[in-house]
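Predicting holo structure, 3-phosphoglyceric acid bound.
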Amino acid sequence: MKPLIPVLTLSSLTNIEELANLLSSHGLSCIEITLRTPEALSAIKQLSQHPDLEVWAGSVRTPEQAQQALESGASRLVSPGYTPGLLAEVIALNACWLPGVQTISEVMQLAEHGFVQQKFFPAQAAGGLPWLKAIQGPIPEVSFCPSGGIDMLDVGHFLHQSNVFALALSKLVPSDCLSEDKLAALDKKLGMRLHHLREIEHEL
Ligand code: 3PG
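Done. Tokens:
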């Protein structure tokens, strides 16, 4: 089964351990925390202590953010795009990185540097499944984690696509789910949601 990655933008650390346990109990082994709030690095620090959870840092745009995210325990950096400065820093840090792309030239340029797993972003607006299908013939060595604007109903279709290795989306786990009530509600819903998504992925 390909990884399905909840993307969260957290402005609180309340019940963060409970969230980590909940995700893990539903078989989700990876989470992306965007660097869009002051709490993000602390959240990465805490979540990365969980033995069964891989923590990615999302929205990494600067060399400084790349360093901070790694120091906080992120196992992978995810960026909406890339700049020469960020590219150089990530190479210098020898970091595991998912750079964002939306054009063929960007895909080729990053592949030249050895980044053969890339984030296709914003996936829905930039061409969606037809883009992924079209790029597979000419650039078979690159695979993608599509993200951005993907609806739950389309998740199975994206996961089924062979040059997709994972999918990241914010709709799976709401970023404001950290209260006890909301975590309990999420616990109930998540199992059904995941079951349904996996069924579609395999039935296609
Ligand atoms: C992001 O940039 O927040 C991620 O790519 C997720 O996008 P989404 O909120 O459209 O799922």
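The radius of gyration is 16 Å.
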